[in-house]
Every structure is written in C-alpha cells, then in structure tokens.
Specification:
With 251 residues, the chain is an alpha+beta fold. The protein contains six helices and twelve strands. Strands 3, 4, 6, 9, 10 and 12 form a six-stranded antiparallel sheet that branches. It has a four-stranded antiparallel sheet with strand order 5-11-7-8. The two termini are 32 Å apart.
C-alpha cells in the first residue's frame, strides 16, 4: 500500500501485523512556490515535474527508503510524455533502476522538497495537516519535519527557503538549523516570481500571490542529515514571513 508521509510504519504494523509491504507514493508534480495557475505551470518549468527531474526523483525515493519504505510508487509517471508538455525534456526512465535500490541513491545529486498540498493551491481534497504555507513570526523559530537520508561527508548541501513577503537585505537576520546543527545565516536572497502578483489582495484569484516571492539560500553540510525524519528550523529575526516551500539539495 502507498505510505503516507505522516504514517508511522511500526504503529501501523501493530494494528495489522508485519506481513505488509509499504510503498511511498508521489504525484507527478512537485513544488510550485510561485503559485501560478496549473495551465501556466505546465508550460513554464519542467523541473517541477517529478518524471523529468532526476534530482527530485532521487530525493523522494531516498527520503522514504531512509524512513522505512520497502519501495516507491510513481503516480502518473507517464503524464508529461503522454501530454507532450516538454518535448525537449524526456521522461527519466533510466532512473528507475536507481530508484529501486537505496544504496545506488546514496551520494548522488538529489533534491528533497517540502511543499504545499491540500486545498491551499493545487491538490484539492488531499488530507492534511500541511506544514506549509505557514507564517514564521518575527524572532520566533519555526520547526519543520522533512524525510531525508544521510549522505557521505564530502557532499555539499544547499537549502533554499521560498517565502512570500519581503525579508529585507539583512542576511544575518535569517537563520537555519538542521537537527542540532546550525547552518548559520543566509548567504543570498533572490526574487522569484513578481510577475505572478495579484492585481490587488481583493481580486479573488487564489492562485496569485499578494506579496513578492523570494528564495533564501543557506549552505549546510552533509553530516547534518540523518536517515528518516529531520528537524529543519527557520528563523527570521526582523520580520514575519510566510514560508511556501523548502528544498534541500545534495550536490
């Protein structure tokens, strides 16, 4: 059966017995921090489609294997090819042999994504609770849980936090921890999608942002990552921000 992100495998076994195989399932679309309409989404960014992005496929599989899944299930894997969304980007069939073996994923480039689901912008009717979007109040730490896998110590790690709002230019006011380790303050801040701003907060278009979207870059180390659930703690000392997506990139 598919393995839900919040399901504790051993708790479930206590109810039904251990003769059950768990597969983690994933949709064919990934994060959409700009929250542009799905019709535009399909034309703009192939990296937001799991079957077209090797990094996201590896990150999804590695995180769930490290959390106890027996395998992975790629829902709608053939959709980008069947709908001819990106003719210049072939579905990554060659990754299937990697995704069946956790040992083959270790040490390879991958992206882990914490993104919005439920009825916030795309997946209508999906059960919650969702961790994002949420408000990180000024000067208060906000803690998230992500399924990650440990990596060789030589692998550099980047963490990108997508926020709605204006974080300012004080990099030292933006901080990140992974588990008990400090990743320090932010290194860079970049604009993402000002063209998707709503005309006004009252225009009624829920697929548009009412504030600019920014991405905040942090640098981390592979020794910070654990197999299974990891705590990601973000803090903005000077202003409150709405967090939309967190990406952990193993390079």
């Amino acid at each position: 059966m598919p393995l839900a992100g919040s399901l504790r495998r051993f708790q479930f076994w206590r109810l039904i017995g251990e003769q059950v195989t768990f597969y983690a399932g994933v949709e064919y679309t990934a994060s959409n921090p700009e929250r542009f309409p799905l019709s535009d989404y399909e034309q703009r960014d192939p990296a937001r489609f799991m079957p077209l992005d090797a990094r996201k496929l590896r990150g999804f599989a590695a995180g769930y294997y490290a959390s106890g899944a027996d395998g992975v299930y790629l829902f709608n894997f053939f959709v980008p090819r069947a709908r001819q969304l990106f003719p210049d980007h072939e579905t990554r069939f060659e990754l299937l042999k990697e995704l069946r073996d956790p040992d083959r994923l270790r040490g390879k480039p991958k992206t882990y994504t914490l993104t919005a689901g439920g009825n916030h912008w795309k997946y209508q009717g999906v059960d919650g609770p969702d961790q994002v979007p949420c408000v990180a109040e000024a000067a208060l730490p906000r803690v998230f849980s992500m399924l990650l896998a440990s990596e060789p110590e030589s692998r550099p790690i980047d963490v990108t936090v997508f926020v709605e709002g204006e974080p300012g230019n004080q990099l030292k006011d933006l901080r990140l921890h992974i588990n008990e380790f400090s990743a320090g303050h932010a290194l860079e801040i970049h604009s993402v999608a000002d063209e998707f701003l709503a005309d006004s907060p009252q225009d009624g278009n829920t697929s548009r942002n009412t504030k600019p979207v920014k991405k905040i870059l942090f640098r981390a180390r592979s020794k910070m990552l654990l197999d299974g659930r990891n705590r990601i703690t973000f803090q903005s000392d000077s202003v409150s921000l709405t967090l939309l997506t967190i990406e952990v990139r193993v390079n």
